[in-house]
Amino acid sequence: MRTNIALVIHAYYAEELMFEKRLVSSVAVLLVLAWLMFFLDQWSTRTQRLELLGQRADSLAIALDLRVSRSIQIIDQMLKLARTEIAEHRIGRDAEAVTRVLERHAPNLDDVYALAFLTPDGTALALSTPDVRPGRNHADRDFFRFHQQSRSDRLYAEKPFKLPGNGQPAFTLSRSLRSADGRLIGVILAAVKTEVLAREMGTLRIGSNGSVGLHHLDSYTIIARQPNYAATAAASIVHADLRTAIERAPTGRFEGAISTDNVHRFLSYRKLSDLPLAVSVGISYDDIDHELSRDLFGHLVTMAFLTLIVPLGAYFLLSGYRREKSLKQSLQEKNALLNAFFASMPAGIATLDRDMRYRLVNPGLARINGFDVADYTGKTVADLQPKLAERLRPYHFGVFAGTSYSDVEFHGQLPNADGGSEEGYWRGYFFPIRANGSDVVAMGCFVVDVTAQKKIAIALRHSEALLSEVLDVLPVGVALVDADGRVTRRNDAFRKTLGDVSVEDVDDFCSLRGYWANSGAPLQRDDWALAKAIARRAPAIGDLIELELQEGIRRTILVSAIPLLSDGGDLSGTILVVEDISSVRNAQAQARMSSDFFERLFSDSPLGIVITDREGRYLRANTAFERFSGYTATQLKAMSFRKLVHPEEASLNEHIKDELLAGRSIVTEKRYVRPDGSAAWGLLAASTIADEHGQPLHAIGQVIDITALKETERALIESQQNMRALATHQTQLLENDRKYVAQEVHDELGQLLTALKYGVSTLDQSRNDALRYGEQTLHIRELVEQTIAVVRRIASHLRPAILDLGLLPALDWLASDFTAHTKIPCKTSFPIEVPELDEVTTTNVFRAIQESLTNIGRHSGAETASISLRHDNGKLLIQVSDDGCGFDRSRVDSMHSFGLFSMRERILSSGGTLTVDSTPGAGTIIEISIPFGNQTQ
């Protein structure tokens, strides 16, 4: 029997030799597969990163497109406003007036260096900055030829250039100004600074060798670019790859290099609407390959370590097997020791014959079954344990058929120390015992009592099941780390929190890209809570970390690590807890931003904003409402809205209150009473803030000060009334002139013509009387001269003929005529020459001065009067003064003096201004200013 056992053991070790060969082959195949998966993973990682970088480049290109488009739209709006103002005031030839328009609009944007207005021949008439003098001709520039040849009103963008004078790089945006018939009146353009765009481009995160640029498509040159903006500003650098890409589609991606640095990049581009402009964002392949190379180095080190450690592990495993084999062979050689081992073995050992009769039983089996060794003599299994015989019979049959069985588990009632029984478990190993190496002569049984281990395993499974259930329902991520730093268990919340990033041990976790949430500083390996807990053997609780899972994607997590220590203080494991609090942090940040936004909007709003309770008592008021109402915020909190109610609008305020309490919004105009008693008009927009039950809790009102608008409206109504009265007055004056002409023609000219007719008819009767004929002829001549004088007087009344000789002769005649009729000396002070004015302007100036002299003669009681004229800076300046009694201007304005009103309207129609300076007892001065280039055509 001992020989058979030795043969069985020898066959077992023959199988182990085959296992060694299989182990070596498996290790080789495993290493080959690992390297193959490594290279496939690197290729997949590079493909994914290229796609992510492409998406990032697209996002940056869209952001750059929005920024440039918004700037161009704002500049274009500024050009339109300036062009509209020039067109409405018809000042296209007045350099000074156009300059003022440009200076008003140019400072509104930092992007704009200057605004300029060009005449139809391309000459710069006016600029918004004094750094560049006007007069330069731009007829040969692309933008001017475009507006000259095209009749469209499209915004035109020109290729980059360097500004004259300071050499700053810029490009122009321009629009044409045309008359109603399409004739070119001028071109207004804005010189846009490219350095502002370049600075903003520099803020985009595009890597160490990235590039962003604004391109001019007609010339395919670069307008603004980062990096090396200073070297490429206004340089004619052609981007052939961009030209090819835009010919295919207005947006997209391509790979290429620009001649300034020849860096191969992955670029995304976008064409700007209908303008010849495009933006591009490029990310260098060097940056991509650098990051991949860095990761590749770490992976190569890992693979090299794996390649080294797996064969070493296989070597040590085989060495162990061989040492174990040597020991067993030594055991096989010492058969005596085997008998002693058989007898003292705590496990049960027995042999059964074909009838399942016990042949050999050791004390260990007898102890397990609660019998003595002698009880087994000549007995079968069925004699001692019938139930066991039924379960053992299939294995008995299989063993005699040549089959071995291992790890066969049995359970049943076993005797205990108290004389009773308890549930027991044991594990059996059944093998055939052969005679002469071939025939099975007995069944070997090896039985181990595993009751204690089984109960521990059951309790362990129960604990593990309970632990799994607890981990699965926990809302926070939990991972269990053993003493060697390997992650043995993690729940789904842990995987989701880390974005399914593979974390197998402490090195994986501490190699994640983390940043302190409060400072933004990157975490080093020893800063992670898990590393601190393992190193210090102390808990690390509540580290607030910003975890970067992918490029640009971060999560805020709360990390804690608790070491598990044995009684001797040795580390047996660590519990790692991670909690994703991104939503909480985002909600807090959103709440703070909303609160800050409301406070900033409330305090800095140009509209007056107030919040009241249900009774109308002021709770809060911003600065704009304090300025509007005249009360401070402290004073307003001590009063209700009824305090500010205008007495005439009490019913309106009650109506507003009723509407708000009903939950309806209201918009209306109303008057407020200020502390000084004055009334202020405001446009009120009010609504309610409801509580959780939908009942009005507070009212919020916004007030726009429209007092000036109301005053303007009143002034406009008065102006319309004045215009109607003036029209009536002018009609009356015209009727008076007609009446005067009719009376003169009828009374004087008619009588003279009748007398002349009579004299001519009687002339023949005096032909023979020479004396009488001569008297009659002399009388007729006198009548003719009187008739001519009357005709001249009538014509002069309607329009002095001397106006045809120019303004200076007409004013000399007017002064002389005034002195002749009023006996008031009128002094004149004229230059030798004055610029030539058109007929309408000359007439308007003459009539205004004539009206002034008429008022002096009628009302002033002056002793002297004077008329002076000079010209300066493109303006004709005329002054009419007297030393009379003067008058109160406010009283005259309230009386609607048609004389002054008519004079002012005449001068305004010629593009000039008229001012009156008079005080009672100090005389009167009337000043007229007429620009040369702005007369009515």
In short:
The protein has 937 residues and is an alpha+beta fold. The termini are far apart.
Task: Quickly list its features.
937 residues; alpha+beta; six-stranded antiparallel β-sheet; 32 strands; elongated; disordered N terminus
Describe the fold and architecture.
This protein is an alpha+beta fold and 937 residues long. It is 47% helix and 25% strand. The chain has 25 helices and 32 strands. The strands form 6 sheets. Strands 1, 2, 3, 4, 5 and 6 form a 6-stranded antiparallel β-sheet that branches. It has a 6-stranded antiparallel β-sheet with strand order 18-17-22-21-20-19, with helices on both faces. Strands 8-7-11-10-9 form a 5-stranded antiparallel β-sheet. A hairpin with a 2-residue loop joins strand 29 and strand 30. The longest helix has 88 residues, at 2-89. The chain is elongated. Residues 1-10 have low confidence and may be disordered.
Strand content: 25-35%
Please count the beta strands (DSSP E, at least 2 residues each).
32
Mean pLDDT, all residues:
78
Instruction: Please count the helical segments.
Output: 25
The helix content, as a percent range, equals: 40-55%
Question: Would you spell out the secondary-structure blueprint of this structure?
Answer:
Layout: H1 2-89, H2 95-105, E1 112-118, E2 124-127, H3 142-149, E3 156-157, E4 161-162, E5 169-178, E6 184-193, H4 194-202, E7 211-216, E8 221-226, H5 229-232, H6 240-248, E9 251-256, E10 265-271, E11 277-284, H7 285-333, H8 335-344, E12 348-352, E13 358-361, H9 363-369, H10 381-384, H11 386-400, E14 405-415, E15 421-435, E16 439-449, H12 451-473, E17 477-482, E18 487-490, H13 492-497, H14 506-510, E19 513-516, H15 529-536, E20 540-550, E21 553-565, E22 571-580, H16 582-604, E23 608-612, E24 618-621, H17 623-629, H18 633-637, H19 650-661, E25 666-673, E26 679-690, E27 696-705, H20 707-761, H21 770-798, H22 807-822, E28 826-829, H23 839-860, E29 865-872, E30 875-882, H24 889-894, H25 898-909, E31 913-918, E32 924-931
Parallel strand pairs: 28-29
Antiparallel strand pairs: 1-2, 1-6, 3-5, 4-5, 5-6, 7-8, 7-11, 9-10, 10-11, 12-13, 12-16, 14-15, 15-16, 17-18, 17-22, 19-20, 20-21, 21-22, 23-24, 23-27, 25-26, 26-27, 29-30, 30-32, 31-32
Helix pairs in contact: 1-2, 1-7, 20-21, 22-23, 23-25
